[in-house]
Design a protein that fits this description.
alpha/beta; 5-stranded mixed beta sheet; 30% helix; globular
Length: 267
């Protein structure tokens, strides 16, 4: 049995199918982990969403910011932009079923046996894994039991720093941003959403979230996506998987048990 962590799909089903052929994915024994952003920007968002949903227990997916954007569009809290490729989903007869399934996906997945954590953007460096799990559970409750109200207050860049005494709305907004949008932190631990480029060219005042001193989650490897400009190889225990397939790059599968990466080009 092999567990393959797959980078951001963004509606790129054809490269995913070629990647699964390349690794000889066996649905009877192997498992797939998806880092989120299943949909949007690519040409096959509807087909990709259906494919991942229909994998059932053979797959685990966490929510990404583009997945949340789809839910916000469906519920009328956001409008599709010219860059979006969500129209097929919005017109699909099974739209509501697909979106109900999507909203029920977690923000993080922790496998204590494999000692790996799956998340879209990262784990905020000031959080313990216990706190991250607690916040993920809280957000999951909102997404499955209070979705329209939650979506109505989800967006915004504030607060940009974590405090234990944040009120419910601020706590949840900070948490959703950390799980699905985070790339860089400032020296005081606050999140920066302005720069999204490579760490090699980042302003000196910014640190990748996983480079922040005294980061609390060190005992498990963190698999994340969201950051196509991030170097493919990083420090031990931090595993980036987004190689920009939707932008003409590669789609990556990281085999956890084998500690090996496989990839196919977008074309």
């Amino acid at each position: 049995m092999t567990t393959y962590a797959i980078g951001d799909l963004h509606g790129c089903l054809t490269p995913l199918q070629r990647l699964l052929d390349k690794v000889a994915f066996d649905p009877a024994s192997d498992r797939l982990w998806f880092v989120g952003d299943i949909v949007n920007r690519g040409p096959e968002s509807l087909e990709t969403l259906r494919f991942v949903k229909n994998l059932g227990k053979r797959a685990i997916s966490v929510l990404g910011n583009h997945d949340l954007h789809l839910l916000a569009v469906v519920h009328g809290f956001r409008k599709s932009s010219g860059k979006d490729t969500l129209e097929d989903i919005l017109r699909a007869p099974d739209r509501d079923e697909l979106c109900q399934w999507l909203a029920a996906q977690p923000l993080i997945h922790v496998d204590d046996t494999l000692d790996h954590v799956l998340v879209h953007a990262g784990i905020y460096p000031g959080w313990s894994l216990k706190r991250a799990r607690k916040l993920s559970k809280e957000l999951h409750g909102e997404l499955t039991g209070n979705l329209p109200e939650f979506l109505s207050r989800m967006y915004g860049n504030t607060p940009d720093n974590w405090r234990k005494d944040l009120n419910r709305e601020d706590r949840q907004r900070f948490a959703i941003n950390a799980f699905t949008r985070m790339r860089y932190c400032r020296p005081d631990g606050s999140l920066d959403f302005d720069y999204n480029g490579s760490p090699a060219h980042a302003p000196a005042s910014l640190l990748p979230w996983h480079e922040v001193a005294n980061r609390k989650v060190q005992d498990k490897s963190i698999i994340f996506g969201h950051w196509s400009s991030h170097p493919a190889i990083c420090r031990s225990g931090v595993i980036p998987t987004d190689r920009g397939c939707v932008w003409g790059g590669d789609l990556v599968a990281y085999a956890i048990e084998k500690r090996r990466s496989y990839w196919v080009s977008a074309s």
